[in-house]
Amino acid sequence: MSTHPASTTSPAQAKLSLLALREKKRSGERIVMVTAYDFPSGRLADEAGVDTILVGDSAAMTVLGLDSTVPATLDDMIVLGRATVRGARRPIVVVDMPFGSYQVSDEDAVRNAIRLVKETGCDMVKVEGGTTTVSRVRAIVQAGIAVCAHIGLTPQSATLLGGYRAQGRSATEAVSILDQARALEAAGASLLVLECVPSPVSARITQQLTIPTIGIGAGPGCDGQVLVYHDLLGITEGHRPRFVKVYASAAETMRAGIAAYAAEVRSGAYPAPEHEYSMPDDELRLFEQAASGSAPQPA
User: Mind telling me the catalytic residues?
Assistant: First the structure.
């Protein structure tokens, strides 16, 4: 089976830090985040120059073929996170804490966050939710682990929010999201994802926080943006959220490549002579003699 060596980090590609992200916010330099779920996607995102990689529980849908993010387990996230970290050396890597890994108690949250960091080598963990998650964020941070918070549309609790729809479209909801953002920053969050929030609300939150904000369907006023790897590369097909922009047609290319391979296998065009391994004529002669039973086996 073909293999690819692990990526390496040169001195010019030193590991980014949370302080570097804060400096980007202060200077107005946009932060680039993308999801990734394995070694090759982490390596490619790194080589493309992204700042942060999110190993999201969206993998439950994009990679595992499930209907929502809820079934993703801590073990799933550890396997995906560990592989991604191996490929992504320069970016800050954030791993999602899946549903059920932090909702029960602060102690549970800390225990599972520690396991995520120890077993994946990630730089920070991400938790969804506003006011109800503040104590979890504070506890995890006090344990020495950096936290990315996530508010607005939170897919793990989409049912309670009325489905996958924008949040904060009324003044009351918008104020609530702003209050949640302030509380999460005060609890020690280092980064904040805003999903499916009206642009003016996200822009105001970004102005009022000292930590960077990352938008997904939250307009251009955030400090950075995140898209799902499979969405932006055109691997995901069918319905896409309105905020998704497709930058490549990977599914078409992959399908065409597999179809071409299948056609050549069936026609006998592959493998061709250049794909074969040979052996010295004298060794081949000995082998043929041994295989036919006309000569003793070579020593």
Answer: 195
